[in-house]
Amino acid sequence: MKVFEKSPSFYEVFERKSGPAKEATHYCPGCGHGNIHKMIAEAMDDLEITERSVFVSPVGCSVFGYYYFDCGNFQAAHGRAPAVATAVKRSNPDAIVISYQGDGDLAAIGTAETIHAANRGENITVFFVNNAIYGMTGGQMAPTTMIGQRSTTTPLGRAEQIHGNPIRMAEMLATLPAPTYIERVAVGTSKQIMKTRKAIRKALKIQKEGKGYSFVEIVSTCPTGWKMDPVAARDWLVDDMLKVFPLGVFKDESDNVDEGTWDRSFEGFVPDKVNTYLDRMKSPFDVTEELDLVKDLNCKFAGFGGQGILTLGLFLSQIGMRAGHQVSWFPAYGPEMRGGTANCSVNISRDRIGSPLVDRPNMLVVMNQPSLDAFEKDVVDGGTIIVDSTIVEGKADAKRLNVVALPASDMADEVGTTKVANVVILGAVVAATDAYEPEFVESTLRAVIKKQSLIDMNMEAFRKGYDFVKNGN
Amino acid sequence: MAAKTAVDVPFMEVNGELCKGCQLCVGVCPKTVIAVSEKLNSASYHPAYYTGADCTGCGLCFYACPEPAAIRVVKP
Amino acid sequence: MAKQFMKGNDAIIVGALAAGCRAYYGYPITPASEIAHAAALHFPALGGVFIQAESEVSAINMVYGTAGMGIRTMTASSSPGFSLKQEGLSYAAGAELPCVVVNIVRGGPGLGNIAPEQGDYFQITKGGGHGNYRLIALAPNGAQEMCDLTRKAFDLADKYRNPACIMADGITGQMMEVVDIPVPEPIPFDHSSWAADGTAATRKNLVSSIVLEPEELEEHNLKLDAKYREIVENEVLYEEYRTDDADLVVVAYGVVSRIVYSTVDQARAEGLKVGLLRPITLWPYPEKALSALAERVPAFLAVELSTGQMVEDLRLAVNGKAPVHFYGRCGGMVPGGEELLTEYRKILEGGRS
């Protein structure tokens, strides 16, 4: 025995619907949405996916899709259903996710979401109900409105030169490589309706099997918006709309795609696993006790980009961190970038650090002339300025400041590469401030320099800078 | 099916209260056995009804009907 | 404790991972992109989701999707992108979805520039999108707080089923500091009564912000409002420094609070009794604390990277009991310590003390 009756994938009573008549839909007489809902519900039953389905209702007449389907329901913002559906599917790949959308929602305000969900090959199913009009808002022109069709915003009929042409979404999406199945069907004649039924089922089956993105455009009717009686509306659909929106399969890779091809994985939160992962992020050394610090360092390091200025700051910061000191490092950013110099601010203190920006340094490193010109005046009286004399020709004010000039770039060249000039400078900074023991710095550098082959060169560079300041050579 | 069911001829039935009188079922019925009532239901629609004979149980009216529960078709 | 020297923007992702965030949806924008970079690296490595969305609008709506399943999720952007997210935030607030949105605020209006600013205060603390709602808004001022407050934002979002926002700036995002890496703990919230996650257990649930009947929508709004009152009552966070005997309390948040902090002792050294109150939650605002201070403090000064936004909340809190001054820089300009000291001197020399 075969019984055609209300699907169990519909709620028995539409409790969420306001007003009386809780067993009837909110749709107007003759509206195609009802037919399509029935066929989706039937396919959900047959594929046994109802309890793991999530139905995403759009904005439009089908905004109330959640009145009807006895599955998880989302109501999405206008045009955003494919984005919501994407996230639901990615966050639970076992869910069967249906994005049900009208023409305004899918082909106007949500065009970007539509195209990109398709282009990512999201393993979701999109049902696109194309009835050539905005129904819910009062019969305005839709992206699919036909040339000549009157609507409340095309009172004289849609004109190509003014309003553009009706958009053919199925054809457009079929140009993308990722989608698995794209078909346009209609709820016009009985034969068309039965084809629609088949297409809906096929689309959901593709998703169930992990075969990827499926899109069924269903040419439908809006008797109210079209100002026609339901029978005349079905006739107009068949006789007129299908001339612009030809039925057919525009893409079908379902036989060529293996099951599970488009399944993505998702793992829930396992605190221990995250803990193990985060543990790998920690520093290569332990921060044990707080070492003494002669005085707080408020450093500005400046030079050309490529001289390793920022890295110099990072090395010193990590040395401070390992010593248990408060540290901040901040790269030149925004208006400070003026003049094309790279610079960074480093604070090292035993106390809480206020501003991460160092505008009055007690330690300034300059590795080019513009930096000397720009920042010398900011150094506090009695502060230290370290100058790479290979590059900087000008002289800092030795009366006001403790000036250390060393040919850092030349010294680095002697070690093997100019690139370690910043580490020569680091040696000078450490020596000039007596902030840390050189052995402590060396062991820290060994831990933080990732390339083993560069360690010896950096050690030598550091020692050269350190000895230059301490011993004058 | 061995056991004889209560029904042995196909039929369709309309829930007159849920029908919105769109008449789409009338047009698709190959046997033209669906008609429209002259009476109004409580929602002010003229509901469809089964004229009582010759339904083949094809189900086309069920799929043509936009309402989930307005039409039921039984084909033994 | 495990420590690492890291950027504020990276610390946000560490905090999010520790909080159990499993999905990140983002769109590139300076100066927030590093957050997406870190997410792209770490979320998939831990079996989670990272999607670079086609737009900011899509990103927040993806957040809406995962949040509606009761799974912790986030997005991050900077001002122009945050503007685009307002629609999604309004929907998420209406549907009562917990999620975290980070805004690394840059100079505006319009495309503005990529330098630090605090010109999004109104948008973040007053709702931002359409309708009656609020975002829980937290303002970290260093890398450790970028981590810790992000983690806290997830808890608050879950506790109140409301989006929570991290408001920071390019300096706090770009600067590196030592961060204690937190130890993740199980999430003590059960979402099965409202989330729709595509399982039989949550089949009956609906995630929606539509409430068609005016009576019901009013009731829904009042329910949200009651929740917001509860947040105001319970979740205010702020920090005070030397306000006890202050003749001038400077109110500043985010990176500005760090600059002000540096100046408090300097001001005291020259005999100016200055204190700092730093709102850590921007919404709820520390209104009670400021109102209490206003009983005895002769003057207040709001310092912001804006032309005067938070100062309006300060004035409401002080409610006429003391003069409220304002000093702001914007467009990416950041006040120096000396500049602020000059301002303090001006106020205190002209004031009662």
Topology (elements, then pairings):
The complex is a heterotrimer of chains A (473), B (76) and C (353).
Chain A: E1 2-4, H1 32-47, E2 53-57, E3 72-75, H2 81-91, E4 96-102, H3 103-109, H4 111-119, E5 125-130, H5 160-163, H6 169-173, E6 181-186, H7 190-208, E7 214-219, H8 223-226, H9 230-244, E8 248-252, H10 271-279, E9 297-303, H11 309-322, E10 326-331, E11 342-349, E12 363-366, H12 369-375, E13 384-388, E14 402-406, H13 408-415, H14 421-433, H15 438-448, H16 455-471
Parallel strand pairs in A: 2-3, 2-4, 4-5, 5-7, 6-7, 9-12, 12-13, 13-14
Antiparallel strand pairs in A: 6-8, 9-11, 10-11
Chain B: E1 11-14, H1 24-28, E2 34-36, E3 48-50, H2 60-64, E4 71-75
Antiparallel strand pairs in B: 1-4, 2-3
Chain C: E1 3-7, H1 8-18, E2 23-26, H2 33-45, E3 49-52, H3 56-67, E4 73-77, H4 79-84, H5 86-94, E5 99-105, H6 121-125, E6 136-138, H7 143-160, E7 163-169, H8 170-174, E8 176-180, E9 206-207, H9 214-234, E10 238-241, E11 248-251, H10 255-269, E12 274-279, E13 281-283, H11 287-293, E14 299-304, H12 310-318, E15 324-328, H13 337-350
Parallel strand pairs in C: 2-3, 2-4, 4-5, 5-7, 6-7, 11-12, 11-14, 14-15
Antiparallel strand pairs in C: 1-8, 6-13, 10-12
Helix pairs in contact in C: 1-2, 1-7, 3-5, 10-13, 11-12
